[in-house]
Amino acid sequence: MKTALVTGVTGQDGYYLSQLLIEKGYRVIGLIRRNSRYDIQNFVADIGNNNFTIEIGDLTDLSSIINILKKYDISEFYNLAAQSHVGISFTNPISSTDINAMGVVNCLEAIRIVNEDIKFYQASSSELYGDTEEEFQNEQTPFRPRSPYGCSKLFSFAITKNYREAYDMFASNGILFNHESPRRSINFVTRKVTSTFAKINAGTLDRLEIGNLNAKRDWGYAKDYVEMMWRILNHNTPDDFVIATGEVYTVKHMIELAAKYFDYEIEWDGEGVDEIGFDSKTNKKLVVVNPDYFRPAEVEYLRGDFSKAKKILNWEPTTSFKQLIEIMCDHDKKLFS
Ligand code: NAP
Ligand code: GDD
Q1: Which of 13, 44, 232 gets mutated to test ligand 1 (max ligand atoms within 8 A of its CB)?
Q2: What is the bridge-based pairing of β-strands 266-269 and 276-279?
Q3: Which of 31, 308, 330 lies closest to 201 in space, CA to CA?
Q4: CA nearest 244: which of 135, 100, 82?
Q5: Is 13 in the pocket of ligand 1 (CB under 6 A)?
Q6: Residues flanking ligand 2, CB < 6 Å
Q7: Nearest CA to ligand 2 atom 32
Q8: Which has the closest alpha carbon to 164: 215, 112, 90, 228?
Q9: How do residues 149-202 score in pLDDT, each as one tens digit?
Q10: Chain segment 57-107, per-residue pLDDT in tens
Q11: Residue of 279, 286, 266, 293 lying closest to 210 (CA atoms)
Q12: What is the distance between the alpha carbons of residues 150 and 90, in angstroms, rounded to a whole number?
C-alpha cells in the first residue's frame, strides 16, 4: 500500500483529494495545524476511513514536516496547505507569504533531507497570471501576479521547478484555475452567493452584499480537479500543467444562475457602486454592491487553456458551470433551510 502525505486536509481540496487517494488504495497522512476549536475526531469520522491518519504539524515549522516524513514511508507528498484567500492576503501579507512561499521551501527541504525520492505536488494557481493580456492562459503565458497571494504563489511555483532542476527531484506544479464545491469556504464568491441565496430563500437574510460584479473566472468543480493532482504525480516525468475548463463567466452571471435556482429572476439597474440586482417578479432588491469587498488590485479575467493536460494526461472536465452551481445550491438549500 502506498502512503501519501496531504497538507491542507481541512480545506476544500484536501478533503476531496484524501477521499480519492483512499479510494485508490492509499494510506493518507493528513497534516493538520493545531488550533483551539477544531474537532479532529469529527473530521476523521467525516473522511470515514481507517486508512486516514492525522498528524499535527505546520507548514511554517520545518521540524514538524521532517518528523512526519521520518515517521512514515511516504511516496507522494501533496502540498495543498496555504492562506488561500486573495483578499485576506492584502490584510495579512506577511503570514500569507510565510505559509505560501517559505512553507513550500520547508516542504522541499524536508524531502531533500529525509528522502529525495518522495514525489512532490505543489498547489499552484491561475492567480499567477494576474492582469494577463492573453485570452487563454497556458503553461507558456507570462506570470503577472496582482496580490501578496499571487506573489507568494509565484515564488512557490518557481522554487518547486528549481528543486526539480537542481536536485532532479520529482516536483510538479498543478496550475489550477478556480474550482469550487459545497466544501468551499463561505468567504469565496461562489459559495458566498449560493449560501446567501439559500438564506434569502429561507427568510433568514435580506440581501447579498458583493464586490466586483464584473470579474470573470474560469470556474470548475473541485472533485474533478483533485483527480488531476494524482495524475500529475503519477505521470512518468515531473512537469507543470494548467487545469481549467476553458470557459469564462462573470460574477454577475454566476449570481443570476444561483438566484434562478431559488426561483428569483435577477435584473440589474445602476452602475458601479450604485448597481443593484432586483427580482423582476417582486421588485425586491436582492443584490447590492459593498466596496469593502473590492481589492486594492484586482484580477479581472482568467481563462485557462488545458490542452497540455488533455493531451498528456488525457483529462477533460466533466461538470458544467451550471451543474456546479446547482450542486452547491442543492447543498446550501438543505443546510440553511
Ligand atoms: P482552503 O480550503 O483554504 O484550504 C487551505 C488549507 O491549508 C486548510 O486546510 C488550512 O488549514 C491549511 N493551512 C493553512 N495554513 C497552514 C499552515 N501554516 N500549516 C498547515 N496547514 C495550513 O484551500 P483550497 O481551496 O482547498 O485550496 C488548496 C490549495 O490549492 C491551496 O494551496 C490554494 O492556494 C490552491 N489553489 C486553490 C484553488 C481553488 O480555486 N480552490 C485554485 C488554485 C490553487 P486550517 O483549516 O487550519 O485553516
Ligand atoms: N471572495 C469574494 N467575495 N470575491 C468577490 C466578492 C465577494 O464578496 N465580490 C466579488 N468578488 C470577486 C473577487 O474580487 C474576484 O475577482 C472573484 O470574485 C473571485 O473571488 P474569490 O472567489 O475570492 O476567488 P479568487 O479568484 O480571488 O481566488 C481563488 O481562486 C484562485 C485561482 O485563480 C482562490 O481559491 C485562490 O486560492 C486560487 O488560487
Answers
A1: 13
A2: antiparallel
A3: 330
A4: 135
A5: yes
A6: 84, 86-87, 125-127, 177-178, 187-189, 192, 210-212, 215, 217, 251, 293, 295, 298-299, 302
A7: 178
A8: 112
A9: 999 999 999 999 999 999 999 999 999 999 999 999 999 999 999 999 999 999
A10: 999 999 999 999 999 999 999 999 999 999 999 999 999 999 999 999 999
A11: 293
A12: 10
- Please report, as a single letter, which amino acid is at residue 111: I
- Expressed in angstroms and rounded, the spacing between residue 239 Cα and the centre of ligand 2 is 27
**Substitution candidate for ligand 2 out of 80, 178, 179 with most atoms within 8 A of CB:** 178
C-alpha cell belonging to residue 321: 458551470
Task: Report the 3 state secondary structure along 273-334.
Answer: HHCEEEECCCCCEEEEECHHHCCCCCCCECCECCHHHHHHHCCCCCCCHHHHHHHHHHHHHH
- Name the amino acid, one letter, at 133: E
Distance CA 111, CA 123 (A): 16
CA distance 256 to 266: 6
Query: How far does the centroid of ligand 1 lie from the alpha carbon of residue 107, in Å?
Result: 15
Distance 189 CA to ligand 2 centre (A): 6
CA–centroid distance, 81 to ligand 1, in Å, is 4
pTM: 0.97
How far is Cα 93 from Cα 88, in angstroms, rounded to an integer?
8
